[in-house]
Structure formats: structure tokens, C-alpha cells
Amino acid sequence: MRPPILGLHHVTATVAEAQADVDFAGGALGLRLVKRTVNFDNHNVYHFYYGDETGRPSTLWTTFPYKGWGVPVGVHGAGQIVATSFSVPRDSLAFWEARLREEGVVQEGAGSRFDEEALAFRDPSGLKIELITADRDERTPWTQGGIKPDRAIRGLHSVTLLIRNPAKTVELMTDLLGFEQVNEEAGRIRMGINGAGAGRSIDIVTAPEAPAAANGLGTVHHVALAIADPDQQLQLREEIIRRGLQVTEVRDRCYFTSIYFREPGGVLFEVATVGPGFTVDEEPRRLGESLMLPPWEEPNRSAIESKLPPITLRGA
Q: Does domain 5-307 have CATH number 3.10.180.10?
């Protein structure tokens, strides 16, 4: 079976303060807040989705701001996504260095990887973020965040998994999900699907002595892979079960349906459908302006809104 995984769908992280997160992703990075909803498993906490104009899969960065709910700071380590990378045009890193400096963002320096230039920095919650140059990224960026098209983020480039022993991770990604190993350098393997490239790549860093990761503030919770439709998702779920792996039931996230399982190295993978998308309950021009709740939470709207901190979008 070669499941029709299309590429990355989204990456979800646990962050601290809601307003600081909006200022960083929507302000400093210039992404669009395409959906302001709640964590479907804890309606007292926001779930923010940032991306391109309509929040297409492969452009999405999503966050749970958990400050004030007793969640400790997480531990970065093995069995975790330790860096989330976004794709930017070639020759744009000088602009980004200057912009991030003006925004007060803590930078960790520039370098190169697999013939691509990269700039690393930390978000307000301590998450490692990278901007990586990509020559052939035809995705249309969101530019109403104040960043010109020749510099703006196109979407996700890749994520980096930290794994003590990558052999079984590589095997599962290849045999079950259809990825191929497309490159390798010291301590790092690049896996790609559908030709690899921006939005279709996952890096695996080998770290045999790394401490065990612990979820918490400032850590990535999971990476989601895109699949075309619910029927293909169900077929993949059956194959996961057949292989003896634990996988959740299909969960309705309103804007897509999801299944979740852990790969052998411990990283949580989600497989999410492409549709129906974020315009099912808001007009495209109004995306992200209002708090949208799943239908089953509407009776609790007043109570939910009373516990969520107010946020202000830059330029609003």
C-alpha cells in the first residue's frame, strides 16, 4: 500500500501567552490568523491557526496558548519535533535578520543545510523556528501582513525530529507513509514525499544520548500530514492497526478530520484531510476575526469567552 500522503498539513505547538503568540506569528512573521477557535479537547484554551490567505494545508502553524493553566515548561529532547521551518524566497534572509532584530526576536544564527540557507531563532515561548530559502516554492504568500511577496513566508518548509535511533522511524515513514530518503549529511536524514521540497520534507536528527522529551510550554505537540479525503484516511488507519500500532479513532476537527499515532521514535503524527477547510464557517475576507466554536460548544459560548484572554491583531 502506498498511501496518498500529499505532504505536510500543519504543525501544532504549546505556547505561553496568547497575545505574545499573535504578535509573533501574525506580526513578526507576517502570517495570517485564519482561524480563532478553541482547543477541542479543552475549550478554555484558544487554538490559533496561522497560514496563507485561506489556510491551505502545508502553510499552517497552529498553537495552544496555555499560560495560566498550570502547564509546566516542556523539555526539548528525543521523541519530539525540535524545530519548525518555514520556506522563504532566496536572498531574503538579510531582510529577515533585520526584521527579527527590530521585533526583538532572539536569533541563533544563520547557516546552510542541503544547499539551502537557514536562519534560526526562538519564538516568545522558546520554540525553535527556522526560515529556509527555497528556489522552487510556487505557493502564494499572504502579503497583507506587511511583508512584500519577494520576502514573505510561503508556508511550512519542514520539521526536524530528534530521534535516538532513527532506523525504525525511517522504515515506518518509508513503508507506511510513502516517504523516501532524499538526502543525508552528518547526523541528519532528510525524508521527502511527492518530490520532496518545501512543504513535503521531514528531517530526522540522530541523537543517541538526548534526554527524553516532555510536552509543555514551548514544545511542539505534533506534526500533521495531509491526505486527500476521509476514505483514504480510513484505509490508512486500517493499515496502521494491521501493523500493530496504536491509533486514535477519526476525530472531527470541523475544518478537517484527523487520526493520531506515534512513530517508533516517539513523535506524535497526525494525518489530516485536506477539506473541508476554514471557509466553512467564515467568509474568506473575515477569517480569524471572530471566535469560532464547534457546534457542540455553542451553548457554552458565554462561559468560554469569559475565560479566554482578549487579543488584538496588529493593524486592527
A: yes
